[in-house]
Specification:
Length: 542
């Protein structure tokens, strides 16, 4: 009996041993599977790390190439600046021939000084010129009038000089019956359009040169241009005045003065390009209309050879013609801004409907006379009204539409045209998408109370306008009703040829074919540009 029990126990024990072995084996297999999974994950991580390392190496290679390219560009820029400094030094030496060595050393040009300062990267305490920031409070007072076109010949084959563009300021009246007599002009604040630019200037107020170098490349280069100009502003004032002062010969002047040749419009254009606009523009690059008469070197004595080229824009079937100066963008491969120079801008007198040269207006107007309803401009022009040319309006619209055609993805389509004369500047802007036409009042180029000194406000305004791609944000409306109030009606008036204006405009054209058209003489007097702030609760006057 005992033997039988022993026999039964042995198989049961054997079964238990087999079960333990199988469990142990399963455990080993599971651990092996987990180990293989971990190895596979590690291999994938290694592959990913290798991929990231290769990408980093590739990125570093591209960054190195970019740095090398930037260094070469900087070397090229320094070479051009050195050439310019050599020319200016030669001019100074010629001017001061016969002066002692001690006096000659004292007359080192501001451009030479600032050139050394820029190269001295260890001088982290170098501050930006204070004149830049003294202008900021005055910029908040500047306004643009919003214009409406009544009729124009934009659908005809007309050169800019024959452009017929009747415009007036958009008027707003109160909706309440008892207040309908309250009529105001619609305008836009300069600080609204150029908010990014003013914010950037405010940000730079407490910065030094090293801080600026760490900013966005476009903003950094723009600020260096402005600061460099203010550092050498005295030299440029002297050059501009030397050209402008020969504008007219009055009785009582010395015989040598009366024999001086009065500057041509080309002389004035070259002076502005070399000693003001071109110095502030992106890349300091410009092209002057090659059709300009009596082309030559700058008359100030710097002997710089200006760059002439084809500046024709438009289309022969509509508005077309040549611009006085076209400025390039940052990459120097495309046109960005335009400017037109006049020997005398004119002002319209609303009481007599006649035109008076600005210089005469400035002398004859009573200083106690009330300013326009819009309040004082940044230069406090005392005239009763200001006017602008139909030619400038046409040029602005065509150039804006051309920019829209070539760069449809630009976020801001408010494109400027700068009008300059020896006394004043004026800014006209057109938004080709929203059909908005703006025009500023005249701005004094030189300080009224400091004869011979360029106005810092005018310089900063020109700088902001020339760099509008990074400093202008355009207009943003809350609804379509507000947007419609600001429209100029040009797109409606040009509807017949709208396909040409949006798809077929040309640039850098040396000449346009002549289409035989009847020429109509325009005897219309330009409308008055006065304005006050847009008043909510008012509607457009019909």
């Amino acid at each position: 009996m005992a033997e039988e029990n022993t026999k039964e126990t042995v198989p049961e024990t054997q079964d238990l041993l087999d079960l333990d072995e199988r469990s142990h084996l399963c455990l080993i297999l599971n651990k092996k599977k987990e180990a293989l999974t971990e190895i596979s994950d590690l291999e994938r991580e290694i592959d990913q790390l290798e991929k990231e390392v290769m990408e980093k190496i590739s990125d570093l290679g591209r960054e190195t190439d970019q740095l090398v390219k930037e260094v070469m560009e900087k070397i090229s820029d320094l070479g051009r600046e050195t050439d310019q400094l050599v020319k200016e030094v030669a001019y100074k030496k010629e001017k001061n021939r016969g002066v002692s060595t001690q006096n000659t050393q004292k007359e080192t040009t501001p451009d030479q000084i600032v050139g050394k300062q820029w190269l001295n990267t260890k001088n982290v305490s170098l501050r930006l010129h204070k004149g830049i920031f003294l202008a900021i409070p005055h910029l908040h007072k500047m306004k643009f009038a919003v214009l409406e076109i009544g009729k124009c010949n934009a659908t005809e084959s007309r050169s800019f000089t024959d452009a017929d563009c009747k415009f007036d300021m958009i008027k707003m009246e109160r909706e309440e019956e008892e207040l309908k007599h309250e009529v105001r002009s619609l305008n836009v604040n300069f600080s609204t359009l150029f908010r990014p630019g003013l914010e950037f200037l405010t940000l730079c107020h407490d910065k030094n040169i090293e801080d600026i170098k760490k900013m966005d490349k476009a903003q950094m280069e723009a600020m260096f241009l402005l600061n460099n100009y203010f550092q050498s502003i005295g030299l440029h004032e002297e050059s501009l005045i030397k050209v402008f002062n020969y504008k007219e010969s009055e009785e009582g002047e010395s015989q040598s003065r009366t024999k001086q040749t009065a500057p041509t419009e080309t002389d004035i254009t070259v002076a502005f390009a070399e000693h003001l606009l071109g110095r502030l523009a992106p890349g300091q690059s410009y092209i002057i209309d090659y059709k300009a008469k009596k082309k030559g070197k700058c008359k100030c004595g710097c002997n710089v050879d200006p760059k002439f080229g084809s500046t024709g824009i438009g289309h022969e079937e509509v508005w077309h013609g040549h611009i006085d100066i076209i400025f390039s963008s940052y990459n120097l491969e495309e046109d960005q801004c335009i400017a037109n120079c006049e020997k005398d801008l004119v002002v319209a007198d609303c009481s007599t409907s006649t035109f008076t040269p600005l210089k005469k207006r400035k002398e004859d107007v009573d200083e106690k006379e009330e300013v326009s309803p819009g309040g004082k401009t940044i230069t406090e022009v005392k005239g009763t009204a200001v006017g602008t040319s139909e030619q400038a309006i046409a040029q602005t619209i065509v150039f804006s539409l051309l920019q829209r055609q070539r760069h449809p993805n630009f976020p801001n389509c408010m494109i400027p045209n700068i009008l300059v004369s020896p006394d004043y500047i004026q800014i006209i802007m057109y938004d080709a998408v929203n059909d908005i036409l703006l025009c500023s009042n005249f701005i004094d180029l030189f300080n009224v109370n400091a004869d011979g000194c360029l106005s810092s406000e005018a310089v900063v305004i020109l700088w902001l306008v020339l760099h509008y791609r990074i400093f202008c944000c355009g207009l943003v409306f809350e609804d379509t009703v507000e947007a419609d109030i600001h429209k100029s009606n040009f797109q409606i008036l040009a509807k017949e040829k709208w396909d040409i204006y949006t798809n077929q405009l040309k640039s850098c054209v040396p000449g346009f074919p002549i289409l035989e058209k009847e020429i109509k003489v325009d005897t219309w007097n330009r409308k008055v540009l006065q304005g006050t702030e847009y008043c909510k609760g008012m509607k457009k006057k019909k």
